[in-house]
Write a structure and sequence with these properties.
Helix content: 25-40%
Radius of gyration: 15 Å
Number of helices: 5
Distance between the termini: 15 Å
Structural class: alpha/beta
Order of helices and strands: EHEEEHEHEEEEHEH
Number of strands: 10
Strand content: 25-35%
CATH class: Alpha Beta
Number of domains: 1
Length: 158
């Protein structure tokens, strides 16, 4: 099962650190995948949940990573990723766009499933803790994206 840290969180929400590049790098070093909020504004790349907050370099931060799941926060970043995918064949970069949809299809064919919605074996169960789901409820899914992803890793080891 793919374990994905939501915005870099391991043991609960941490709004002051979420999407901060250094925070993300530390979690990647621990072996987790990470969902990040990405913006593209005036030909520049940023991380940030509600606004483009942390400027990043696409090639230094995103291009080589096989462990990032990019939540496109504006249409410009989605369009830029589609263009780059065609030009550079960057099929390893996983990206998606959604608001409050029940689910959305990621660029690599998985179903990013909103909390509380029907899950499948191709689903990423997003924030299952919001609905009181435990590992036994979601272990058939492809993956989990959570603010408490360390808990799910620990449960699988025991």
């Amino acid at each position: 099962m793919k374990l994905i840290s939501h915005r870099g969180n391991l043991d609960g929400k941490n709004p002051k650190m979420e999407n901060k590049p250094e925070y993300i790098v530390e979690v990647l070093k621990l072996g987790y995948d990470v969902e990040i909020d990405v913006w593209y504004v005036d030909n520049k790349w940023y991380l940030g949940h509600d606004t483009p907050t942390y400027k990043i370099d696409f090639y230094d931060f995103i291009y080589d990573s096989r462990c990032l799941w990019l939540h496109c926060k504006n249409i410009e970043v989605f369009e830029e990723l589609v263009t780059l995918d065609k030009e550079l064949d960057i099929t390893w970069i996983k990206y998606f766009w959604h608001q409050n949809d029940d689910f959305t299809l990621t660029s690599n064919g998985y179903i990013w499933t909103y909390p509380g919605k029907q899950l499948t074996k191709k689903s990423i169960s997003v924030l299952p803790e919001k609905n009181g789901l435990v590992l036994e409820d979601i272990e058939f899914c492809y993956g989990i994206c959570s603010d408490y992803i360390k808990k799910y890793k620990d449960e699988r080891i025991v």
